[in-house]
Structures
1.
Amino acid sequence: MSRNILIVAGDGIGPEVMGEVERVIAWFNENRGFDGVVENELVGGSCYDAHGVAVTDETVEKAKAADAVMLGAVGGPKWDDVPFEVRPEAGLLRLRKDLGLFANLRPAICFPALAEASSLKTELVQGLDIMIVRELTGGVYFGEPKGIDDLPNGERRGYDMQVYDTHEIQRIGRVAFDLAKKRDNRVMSVEKRNVMQSGLFWYQEMVKLGAEEFPDVKLEHMLADNCGMQLVKNPKQFDVIVTDNLFGDMLSDVAAMLTGSLGMLPSASLGAKDENGKACAMYEPVHGSAPDISGQGLANPIATVLSFAMALRYTFDLGADADLLEGAVEDVLADGYRTGDIMQPGKKQVGTVEMGDAILTALTKRTA
Ligand code: IPM
Ligand code: MG
């Protein structure tokens, strides 16, 4: 049975880094019997330019039907002035919402070869391995009402609604607890229960879920501002962090930067299994479209390649192939290959395609 992968490369460096993933998929087809069939569609600004919307209905349907979606990046200054509803990010948000991708897994791993590239002291990040589990289809990102209104007094009012229902907290909580069981068995739930009712509610639901369904997993709680501080002070104290959409957005950027480069970090966005056992899934690098370097062949494809490794692990249940690909990435880093964003003195600076070449060579070596 072939495996259907929809690639929506998006804007900026998206198509460049995704080109390397296509080569990696071809390698797995040739050498590991992966049988991946790739189709490409537009999303973001490039889709707006072609169709006047950030993602088309047809692409959303294809994404629902695919076994996995690989997304590059969306956005760029070119589309700063397009209407809010059709801005590039709207395409990404619609895919998340329509595919029901409520669970966003953002690992923050420090590769040994890159510990010195972190903005923190090497000993603080060496060996870092955190999993941030971000709720992705609720909270203030999607809560209603939201808008900008004219007030009778001549002022205007802007507002968004932070809201979570029981089942939304339970299902993201279960993902976090299940992941923790396969790791260090610790979950840190993060909210602002000292200020927000929705935060207090999040806390209460997590306490209940932990006690009822996961009594053997250690559950702790932290206020979101303190979590930001602790991530910078002593990041290795964390195992799994579970938090809402907005705090997860911010804290995952902080955690990403600790690891030496945003250009290294993958993510998985997963939905619930349907009655046939199929779950929608989308894999994307944590970094953005990097308009400043796009089109120059300089972008680091590693985050996107590692996102495909997550697809191998979580959608296709090919853990050994995921390990192989992650190992190949470690090999090229150990061999001194660096794109500009992670360049260090004495290392070999390469471009996007050369980095892809090195990864393919490392794959072949590992399987020889
Ligand atoms: C992310 C991004 C998106 C988000 C943007 C591009 C809409 O920052 O995936 O973290 O805010 O979720
Ligand atoms: Mg973000």
Note: The pocket of 3-isopropylmalic acid (ligand 1) is lined by residues 89, 92-93, 249 (CB under 6 Å).
2.
Amino acid sequence: MTLDTAFTGYANPSLHAQGLYIGGKWEAGQGIPVLDPSTGNTLAEVPDASIDDAMRAVDAAEAAASEWRGTPPRQRSEILRRWFTLMTDHAEELALLISLENGKALTDARGEVAYAAEFFRWYAEEATRIGGEFRHTPSGAHNILVDHEPIGIAVLITPWNFPAAMATRKIGPALAAGCTVILKPASETPLTAYAMARLGAEAGVPEGVVNVLTTTTPGPVTSAMLADPRVRKLSFTGSTGVGRTLLAEASKSVVSCSMELGGNAPFVVFDDADLEAALDGAMVAKMRNGGEACTAANRFYVQSGIHDAFVEGLTTRMAKLKLGAGYAPDTQCGPMITINAVEKIDRLVSEAKSRGARATIGGDPMPGSGYYYPPTVLENVPTDAALAHEEIFGPVAAVYRFESEEDAITLANDTEYGLAAYVYSRDIMRAMRVGRGIETGMIGINRGLMSDPAAPFGGTKQSGLGREGGVTGILEFMEPKYFAVEF
Ligand code: NAD
């Protein structure tokens, strides 16, 4: 593998990927070019795993399984803790790698590394606190004992938008629970996953406990793994469309599924909101990662009395953002992941404009190389525009006006998604009432950022099944076993 370091200063060969990572061995190969979205240039090439390779990864995970589940929780915990420390020690190199292959601004990439590493620290702590349950039957005649066992081999599939955090949010709890895993990162951003695997080996993760493979044929490769009776868990983060396909695939062998899928977050601002706080929150909720986040505010519903001031404030803030290559030091908004992503944003914005929306800033694609779309604010957007119902996944804030609290809740719930929502109001009773009325798994009240390894992350409706992070995240990788005990 070669990495063009001339203009990036990326200079830590020990973190470079060397091939598929199966059973603790690196297997050289090629077939998947990894592009720099800032330029479209090829950064590196990683191997294209076949079904046979994937089955060898399942063999490796199986070979390591019984020893790993028998490893004392304290020891599993210490390995995860060392992995956290190593990620922290290598934070700057990892951030640069993320920025190179994903395009996000270095400040966002640094934030991601800290967030990602924290899942290892959190689950290092949780590994030693796996609970069970004891109770008497209501008759008083018998006893109920519930143990939690590792569920078995887990296939982990992750998207490109948070190449480090989406992997650690699964690997951390899986390893803490005593499971062995096969990670399939997105082909757009595999370098971060392979770099983290190297750090995992250095932290003492035994051979075969974590296997990593990249492939251009994720459908057949995943189906083959799910059909193998040794695989008992699928944990997927990605689009709702692929999630639906995988749920159908997993149903054939009744594999347990955790699904973290797409979102369409409403951001509701009431007249009595602190305008500056709402604008600060809006910039984080919209522009973190250049808008390429499942929790990104997709629809801004702003009450009439504050609407014009909000649009003006948001436009001013968006105008100040510095657009450029993610790894350039002063960049605040990097390129989108692919040219297809830019084309999708352009299609959504053009449709909204053709139906009466007005851009107060941005609103047109940019000439030149790299996959850029400018920060954009749209007002007067019809509520049935396509971008009110599809994930924009880019730096476009669509603003809608509303009058009453009831309208805000109805509009917020007018989507098949149910991941995240934001509510801004100085009246905390109202904010909580509206929060309860909105059908999502997560609500930010006067906050534009909700992701926290200690909190249960996940969605309702077509945004997913299960929760990652928090005290319950580990249970996604465990199976309760009930003992009816007579004593
Ligand atoms: P995607 O669904 O296209 O791909 C996600 C992963 O699935 C990638 O690794 C991809 O290679 C793999 N994949 C694609 N087709 C597959 C198949 N048939 N079988 C098995 N694997 C397959 O999503 P993406 O474009 O990489 O990521 C963006 C999406 O992810 C957005 O919808 C976003 O909202 C969602 N997302 C959700 C969360 C969450 O926590 N809910 C977090 C981040 C991203």
Note: Residues 157-162, 166, 184, 186-187, 218-219, 222, 237-239, 242, 245-246, 260-263, 294, 391, 419, 459, 464 surround nicotinamide-adenine-dinucleotide (CB under 6 Å).
